[in-house]
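Cross-check.
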Amino acid sequence: MSALNPDDILNGYINGIFPMAEPDGTIYWYSPNPRAIIPFENYKPSKSLRPVINRNHFEIRVNTDFEGVMRGCSGPRAKESGTWISEDIIASYTELHRYGYAHSVEAYRENRLVGGLYGVSINGVFFGESMFTIESNASKVAFHYLIQILKLNGFALLDTQFINDNVLRYGAVEIPRDEYLDLLSNALKVKVRFDGTPIS
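Predicted model, tokenized:
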């Protein structure tokens, strides 16, 4: 049985906190200060990525293999030891996905999942959780399409929790926690839904 239920997770996000698992499986809640977000206007695809997008090098799908994306994100990373995505986390977020709150954007090559990302949407906020890539540029293309989906759907805030080199390349910035909570409160009042209709 999962250690987290969907209501716990949703209430956490609404209040600016989110769960992560330690190597022993213990789940803790976090509220970073400062907090990392990606303003939509900050994102610009790199010159090297544009040809990959224009060639449709990857087939992009939305919400077709949510658990597969989570398991890809939970795999070992070259510069990190362990993972915060435990079996309990996978079970809990997969349940959230079934309820329509958690979403994945997936990149395929020859019908094989080679990269993607997932997160949680509540009204006008998308809480980005993690991404993975097996083929070069796969997660970058998935992120590009995530931005397009969020813009088309009228989202107001993209939360990325912590700053790191990966999110910096997408235009992430750090802001004080109080400022984040103000943005969060306002964005939660924006009544939109995550519509993952494929973008041509």
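The mean pLDDT is 92. Helices lie at 6-14, 49-54, 66-73, 87-98, 138-153, 165-168, 177-187. Passed to J.P. for a second look.
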